[in-house]
Specification:
The longest helix is centred in the middle third of the chain and has 22 residues. The protein is built from eight helices and five strands; from the N terminus they run H-H-H-H-E-E-E-H-H-E-H-H-E. It folds into two domains: 59 residues, no CATH class; 142 residues, FAD/NAD(P)-binding domain (3-Layer(bba) Sandwich). By secondary structure, it is of the alpha+beta class. Strand 2 and strand 3 form a beta hairpin.
Length: 254
């Protein structure tokens, strides 16, 4: 984690990767195509023992030119070459910062989460959203991990949500909602931690939204997230009492 926050330290890992690439790929032209132009960790790091060997097989061609046309027999790339193919797999990436589901969830004021996130996805501790009572997100904004296991983060959120449900039950409340001030303070805290990290070193990744804001990752140690979610912090929330039933009207005879 320290290397992600101090990109200079990540250069040690980059050297190891370059040495591994040279050992695995003898062709310098192919090796150049496979060498990242961004700092290690700026995009998600993938580990594999057979990726490079697969790309060096005689029946494999690594083509990096853009595709200009798809026709009945294959692809035409920007260099004018035709590539015959039997099937095409579209690897279009992730909808993380603009998840389509968010247009279907509406809050107190009738706005969807997508509308309320016009300036960027935001959730307090990646779990609750101001204006959306009794809504709990798992794997929400700023809970993604580029250096550890997402399962650890989810387990932490499970504990936090269960704490919220216990607080609701204890108060016999109808709803619980994070305070807008608390939610905004959390967003501000997250954004102040990204400058200077490897994730803000200049690459385009699915961590970033259309405005270049990183609303995906947790920018610190995973244990610090677990500590903050170990107990439900009721002070950051407002509870809505259940509406009490009106007493039955008495008859005039009574």
């Amino acid at each position: 984690m320290i290397a992600f926050r101090r990109p200079n330290l990540m250069r040690l890992g980059e050297r190891a990767v370059h040495e591994f690439l040279r050992a695995q790929v003898a062709d310098p032209a192919l090796r150049k195509k496979l060498t990242p132009t961004y700092a290690m960790g700026c995009k998600r790091i993938l580990l594999s023992d057979d990726y490079y060997p697969a790309l060096t097989q005689p029946n494999v061609a690594v083509v990096t030119d853009g595709i200009t046309e798809v026709n009945e027999s294959g692809l035409i790339t920007a260099d004018g070459k035709h590539h015959a193919v039997d099937s095409i797999v579209l690897c279009t990436g992730f909808h993380v910062t603009d998840h389509p589901m968010m247009a279907r969830l509406f809050g107190r004021d009738g706005r969807s989460i997508a509308e309320s996130w016009s300036e960027g996805a935001a959730a307090y501790l990646g779990t609750t959203v101001a204006g959306f009572p009794n809504l709990f997100l798992l794997g929400g904004p700023n809970t993604g991990i580029g250096h550890n296991s997402m399962v650890y983060m989810l387990e932490s959120q499970f504990t936090y949500v269960l704490g919220a449900l216990r607080a609701l039950h204890k108060r016999a409340a109808a709803a619980v909602e994070v305070k807008a001030q608390a939610a905004q303070a959390f967003v501000d805290e997250m954004q102040t931690q990204f400058p200077g990290t490897v994730w803000s070193s200049g690459c385009a990744s699915w961590y970033l939204d259309a405005k270049g804001k990183n609303t995906t990752l947790w920018p610190s140690f995973t244990w610090s997230f677990r500590n903050r979610t170990r107990r439900f912090d009721t002070a950051a929330y407002v509870f809505e009492a259940k509406h009490k039933a009106l007493p039955a009207a008495r008859s005039a005879a009574a």
